[in-house]
């Protein structure tokens, strides 16, 4: 004890009190005397004490009654009861009410001093124990905080595989309270059925071998299964059945695996893309040759004298020609995606371009009972004619495919004035429309809802338009129709000279 130990004498016998003062001040104590129980409690609460001498007979209370109140007021101090006569009964009574000891008047000085020293030691030990307990609690809190704040899942299992410890992340991921986890079988509650038996075996093995083991097993998370990589270590196993015998730490690798899977997929796609692009390129030449031969064949058919023979043959030639065209466009889309070439920044007469695209598709629209309407104003966009043709080709085909007999496809072209002038072209149909869930995916490569679709059309449209510095906007109402609007930069003639 660093400062002088405080001694409180509670006695209305002034003479005896003075003796105690003299005796203990000499021994380095600071001694205070009070004559009553009420005054004693006041001091106990206000300043405390290391040791209190309490007389059994006080004017306002009995010493026995006072002891518990003193202990409550100053839990760190000890109380010695002073009694006029010694008996087993009074000794027992003193200890029962919480006094450290009792002393008998008149005092034997040596004995009294020995008792006091003993009591002080007790006080010191208690203070030390208290400090240690606080340190322990603080350290426990720190560890708990670390365990709780980590992103790793932490479980400690007892002999019956109940999770006697589960950190916050573990509870959150599983969606259970620590109490719930402490009362049920960890494997049954937390591990996916397929991996359960194996996980149990691994954990038991780690426990019995007093070693460490790693494995992967699905954790039954509150929002669905999580892929978790587990590390198991055996605990220095405790004696009680509720002691942890094995620790499990788990790292949630669900996202990482998903990323790896996607990376592998896109790598595969990229390889396939290169391969297919090469192939597509190779197909182009024979396709061109076939187109040329077909053209010559058509001319030959035209020269036929026999009307009855010429008509059907010509129809066949036209079917093959349109199929070849389709194939050519598909190849164009594919090559564009697989290895985009640089975009030209020339003047593109959008009016003429849309006329060409519509002329190409009007016959097939008409044959399906679909009306094509146009409201086109002159407009020059800055860009790549071939690519932009591809864009509107795809949009018009989609619009026709979405329409049923009696439908209308409307193509608009206008100039947008204002702070950022642009060319605005839109293709609108009154067809089946796009459900919201589908709308979110239409730009995905290979996403299609059509039995013979490629799912490349809108992917290409967006890629080309974005590479022009433009934007695509789709408005669609399921069952009512779709409007795809394309904004493109205006062409400004370069300054002369
Ligand atoms: N005008 C439209 N009306 C309704 N659905 C459309 C329209 N345009 C595109 N879609 C939807 O978007 C999907 C993707 O279109 P696209 O990329 O052109 O590929 P594809 O036409 O080969 O299916 C289509 O399968 C269809 O579900
Ligand atoms: Mg399409």
In short:
The protein is α/β, with parallel strands linked by helices.
Give a topology summary.
Blueprint: E1 6-10, H1 14-25, E2 30-34, H2 37-46, E3 51-55, H3 63-73, E4 78-83, H4 88-96, E5 101-104, H5 109-149, E6 153-157, E7 163-166, H6 168-174, H7 178-182, H8 186-190, H9 193-209, E8 212-221, E9 224-234, E10 246-252, H10 254-302, H11 307-338, E11 346-349, H12 350-367, E12 371-376, E13 380-383, H13 385-402, E14 408-416, E15 422-429, H14 436-439, H15 457-467, E16 471-477, E17 481-489
Parallel strand pairs: 1-2, 1-3, 3-4, 4-5, 12-14
Antiparallel strand pairs: 6-7, 6-10, 8-9, 9-10, 11-13, 14-15, 15-17, 16-17
The chain binds adenosine-5'-diphosphate (ADP) and magnesium ion.
Description:
The protein has four domains: 6-133, Rossmann fold (3-Layer(aba) Sandwich), CATH 3.40.50.2300; 150-252, PAS domain (Beta-Lactamase, 2-Layer Sandwich); 259-336; 344-489, Histidine kinase-like ATPase, C-terminal domain (Heat Shock Protein 90, 2-Layer Sandwich), CATH 3.30.565. By secondary structure, it is an alpha/beta fold. It has 15 helices and 17 strands. The N and C termini lie far apart (100 Å). It has a five-stranded parallel sheet with strand order 2-1-3-4-5, sandwiched between helices. The chain is elongated, with a radius of gyration of 47 Å. Helix 11 packs across helix 15 (457-467) and helix 13 (385-402) packs antiparallel against helix 15 (457-467). The structure holds adenosine-5'-diphosphate and magnesium ion.
